[in-house]
Amino acid sequence: MASVDIVDVQKSFGSHPVIKGVNVHIEDGEFVILVGPSGCGKSTLLRMLAGLEHISGGEIRIGDRVVNDLPPKDRDIAMVFQNYALYPHMSVADNMAFSLKLKGAAKSEIDARVKPAAEILGLTNLLDRYPRQLSGGQRQRVAMGRAIVRDPQVFLFDEPLSNLDAKLRVSMRTEIKNLHQRLTTTTVYVTHDQIEAMTMADKIVVMQDGRIEQVGAPLDLYDNPVNLFVAGFIGSPA
Ligand code: ADP
Ligand code: MG
Fold first, then answer.
1. Which residues form a coiled coil (predicted)?
2. Centroid of ligand 1 to alpha carbon of 210 (angstroms)
3. pLDDT: which is higher, 124 or 237
């Protein structure tokens, strides 16, 4: 695991600024949630951490490395997306092994990583199935499995539960938290769901319109929101 530092990070698309100078320090092993309304820049910020978008200004550090110019594969991160497209023609095991195969890992190494990941995620008996034979929750677990096998320093999640029904969403919250506790990997998790943020985060970062409104532990934000926006968003009276 590793700390993550976001230092005065900015991003413009053309002449349109969408991230307007953001600073966040994330500790080793911390579970940090970025929340804010749709369009405020959560995904863009996460994609910059992943190296999927260039940053227009500032610095991103993972551990003690500045990663601004590193491609995604060299950042020691793994990202789980909202639309976790699994390869339909590949089994669960092959979906999980895909990135390792791309890197040219030996079969013995692939087995040594896929098996324990499958065990952690309760997928051991499903390794030979194909995505169409899985439930939504099982598919989401395979998507997480693909990330875990890479043994990253940092996990990034972009609204991983938003396509699941309400009941499954609640149980997957617990699963993701358990996973985090077990792997102790630094995690940055994006959601627009206040309850998800309040129940899962060590630390919440509240964003609005490309800026950070407040950073704090869930109860800090609840008890001491700095303004009406945070109060309204977190759900407490100001
Ligand atoms: P969120 O994830 O919080 O909903 P996004 O990071 O997706 O927000 O988007 C933030 C802003 O950046 C939005 O106004 C969006 O339209 C804009 N945006 C995101 N990606 C692009 C892009 N590739 N080109 C132009 N504008 C973009
Ligand atoms: Mg988004």
1. none
2. 10
3. 124
Output the six-digit token pair for 231: 């109060």
User: Which residue's CA is minimally distant from atom 26 of ligand 1?
Assistant: 13
pLDDT tens digits, 161-177: 888 888 888 888 998 99
Chain Cα centroid distance, residue 102: 22
Torsion on CA atoms 109, 112, 118, 121, rounded to nearest 10: -110
Mutate to test the pocket of ligand 1, among 20, 38, 44 (most ligand atoms within 8 A of CB): 44
Q: Which ligand is nearest to the CA of 52?
A: 1
- Cβ of 206 below 6 Å from ligand 1: no
174 vs 182: CA distance, rounded Å: 12
Does 39 sit in the ligand 1 pocket, CB within 6 Å?
A: yes
The CA angle 165-171-173, to the nearest 5 degrees, is 95
Question: Is it the case that residue 180 has pLDDT exceeding 70?
Answer: yes
pLDDT of residue 76 exceeding 80: yes
Report pTM.
0.93
